[in-house]
Amino acid sequence: MTLDKGRPGEEYTVAALSLPQAVEHRLEALGMTLGTKVSVLENKSRGILVLKVRGTRFALGRGITTKIEVL
Questions:
Q1: pLDDT digit string, tens, across residues 4-17
Q2: Closest among 27, 22, 13, 23 to 56, alpha carbons compared
Q3: What are the two backbone dihedrals, phi and then psi, of residue 23, each rounded to the nearest 5 degrees?
Q4: DSSP one-letter code for 19
Q5: DSSP-assigned letter for residue 2
Q6: Is 22 exposed, middle or buried (0-12, 13-18, 19+ CB in 10 A)?
Q7: What is the pLDDT of residues 37-47, one digit of tens each?
Q8: In this model, does residue 31 exceed pLDDT 90?
Q9: What is the DSSP letter of 10?
Q10: Strand 11-17 relative to strand 56-60: parallel, antiparallel, unpaired?
Q11: Contact 37, 15 (CB under 8 A)
């Protein structure tokens, strides 16, 4: 499934990133690499997901989260 369908309070593992190279490199710099555990903190109705990755909280828009496959 894709990360945009993640439910708050659940933890997922990043399986694939299908993003433009610049965006993918930025996420990797923030610690989101293949196999990383990602916790969904909030899934807001306007399309923004608040995530916790390796102890850091950040928000991603729906355009990015629909292209991140998780298990």
A1: 999 999 999 999 99
A2: 27
A3: -70, -40
A4: S
A5: B
A6: exposed
A7: 999 999 987 78
A8: yes
A9: -
A10: unpaired
A11: no
